[in-house]
Amino acid sequence: MIIAQELDLNWKNVKRCIENWIKNYFFTNKIRKVVVGISGGVDSAVVASLTKNALGRGKVIGILLPEKGVTPKTDRKDMKKIVELLRVDFLEIEISKLVKNFIEAFPLVKGDLLAYGNLKPRIRMTLLYAIANVNRALVVGTSDRSEYYLGYFTKFGDGAADIFPLLGLYKTQIKELGRFLKLPRAIIDKTPSPGLWKGQTAEKELGISYEVADRIFFYKKDFPILYGKVYSNEKIAKIIGINKYLIELVENRGKNTMHKRALPPSPPIPYPYFTWKKS
Amino acid sequence: MIIAQELDLNWKNVKRCIENWIKNYFFTNKIRKVVVGISGGVDSAVVASLTKNALGRGKVIGILLPEKGVTPKTDRKDMKKIVELLRVDFLEIEISKLVKNFIEAFPLVKGDLLAYGNLKPRIRMTLLYAIANVNRALVVGTSDRSEYYLGYFTKFGDGAADIFPLLGLYKTQIKELGRFLKLPRAIIDKTPSPGLWKGQTAEKELGISYEVADRIFFYKKDFPILYGKVYSNEKIAKIIGINKYLIELVENRGKNTMHKRALPPSPPIPYPYFTWKKS
């Protein structure tokens, strides 16, 4: 696959800027170490690679959190491959027992795919932070710009970390950056999946491919800023060569998941013009 | 105890506005139910009470998550007292087994008070969201403005919820609101504690009482907006009758926990003036 022309970047510059950003954050905030969850997918492989380039391998701990019976063998192999390739310290914890413990504590989770799917990223987050706390380390998140706009992540699960180095890049751009970084092809070309249940794939669940979603996002979010023009959905559909309903699908996913991209709301601070006793 | 004059509000109006805010959020977003974690402390008692007033008792599920051997008997009794008083549905899950399971999965947590303390609120958050997901409910947070500014909460633990109805009120104001709501005196006058280990109390750990911290926050955050004047730390210390170092303590806690009050940072989106290939 070749990346869509609109999404192509100068990858050398992208790499340099993200690595510098990580380095700058790390040293400005006097951080000692970072932990990165490694899933065997492309996002975490790219994050781990950039982080290691930015900080040196002594500062990075790769955390492998597979689930027996759910995480595919290829992912388990690819997790290991990444930490071996980068030669960083790593720690592996198998989470199926913890999943079972939560189901025992609250059995209704089992019959509910939403609750069941969200449970696992939250268990992983809790483990990542426990490991990070013990090592006085920062948790590096792996979310990308496509997942973020689609709301395709678990709030306070994989959506919870201290920094998100890839949040400015769409999934197809991260794959391209992965190629530039010379990461293993099997990892780059792997079908994206959150891996929350057997056989889950992102694009089937979303009802759209990242190739198409990313081009839609480009024309909705970036094009108006780059070229000062706003295209109608009809026009965008025609340029990309897709049905207009796919743009509406993406827009609806964005609207329905707005709460995942904002700090939780609270009522206004009570100032005396309506509630203070003396004013 | 009488609340400091600066912090006194018209509690009838405060009650009405927060309840209306909850109601408005709930109906605007077409939410079916809410879950509230009830700890036996004043914050969660006040939140539960306001939420029930706003939505009716059929919409509220109280969640009791005590830990055997750690949660004091009085708190366990007070949790029950609140849900009985409000006559809302409730669910109790004892978390000590889950804590044990995490320690088995990553034993180093045990020797590290930071990791150990943070683990429990994250387990509770994970349970609250599992219960909320199954009930298609919203998670109502209980954090207050004092804890928030001091950063005295666990990121992605008790700091994680869908809405925070009390975030505009200082701890001493919430106690006063609790009195206005006629909640049990034992709950209002209880020594504040996150209850993460035996004998933990908030004010000992913070090195300052909420009474003093709240007055400092008033003079630093509210006074300049109410009266258009900024007082020096010396002047504030003199007004409150405290040593200036307490103000610095509060300021340092605020600075060191800024990351807990913001969305996690990420590098800028790469626009072509520095990275896009065609421009």
Descriptive overview:
Two copies of one chain form a homodimer. The first copy, chain A, has twelve helices and four strands; from the N terminus they run H-E-H-E-H-E-H-H-E-H-H-H-H-H-H-H. By secondary structure, chain A is α/β, with parallel strands linked by helices. Chain A folds into two domains: 5-196, HUPs (Rossmann fold, 3-Layer(aba) Sandwich); 204-261. Chain A has a four-stranded parallel beta sheet with strand order 3-2-1-4, with helices on both faces. In chain A, helix 1 packs across helix 2 (42-55), helix 2 packs across helix 7 (171-180) and helix 11 packs across helix 12. Chain A starts with 10 loop residues before the first helix and ends in a 23-residue tail after the last helix. At the A-B interface, helix 1, helix 4, helix 5 and helix 10 of A face helix 1, helix 4, helix 5 and helix 10 of B.
List keywords for this structure.
homodimer; alpha/beta; 4-stranded parallel beta sheet; 279 residues; 2 domains; Rossmann fold
Nearest-integer average pLDDT of chain A = 95
Number of domains of chain A: 2
Supply Rg of chain A. 20 Å
Q: CATH superfamily membership of the largest domain in chain A, which one?
A: HUPs
What's this model, at a glance?
The structure is a homodimer. By secondary structure, chain A is an alpha/beta fold.
Tell me the layout of helices and strands:
The structure is a homodimer of 279-residue chains.
Chain A: H1 11-28, E1 33-38, H2 42-55, E2 60-64, H3 73-86, E3 89-92, H4 96-105, H5 113-134, E4 137-140, H6 145-150, H7 171-180, H8 185-188, H9 202-206, H10 210-227, H11 233-240, H12 244-256
Parallel strand pairs in A: 1-2, 1-4, 2-3
